[in-house]
Write a structure and sequence with these properties.
- By secondary structure, the chain is mostly helical.
- Helix content is 46%, strand content 0%.
- The longest helix has 18 residues.
- InterPro entries: Auton_GlycylRad_Cofactor.
- This is Formate acetyltransferase 1.
- GO terms for molecular function: formate C-acetyltransferase activity.
Length: 71
C-alpha cells in the first residue's frame, strides 16, 4: 500500500522535522518534538466518583488475591 506524499505531509503538520520522517525512528521523533511541561498540577481535575469507585474495586481485588490490605 502506498500513501500519497501530500497525506503524509498533512499528518506531520505541527511537528519538527527530523530523521523520523525518513525511517521508523521513535527516539528521534520524541527527542525532536518533546517539550517539557514546567507548570504545576493546577491543570489536573479532582478525582471523579467513578474513578474512586473503580479504585476501591481494585483495592478489594488486591486484598482478595493477596489476603492482605494493600493500604
Amino acid at each position: 500500500m502506498t500513501i500519497p506524499t501530500t497525506d503524509m505531509l498533512d499528518a506531520w503538520t505541527g511537528f519538527s522535522a527530523g530523521e523520523w520522517q525518513k525511517s521508523v525512528n521513535t527516539r528521534d521523533f520524541i527527542q525532536t518534538n518533546y517539550t517539557p511541561y514546567e507548570g504545576d498540577e493546577s491543570f489536573l481535575a479532582d478525582v471523579s466518583d467513578s474513578t474512586t469507585a473503580l479504585w476501591n474495586q481494585v483495592l478489594e481485588g488486591i486484598k482478595e488475591e493477596s489476603g492482605s490490605d494493600p493500604n
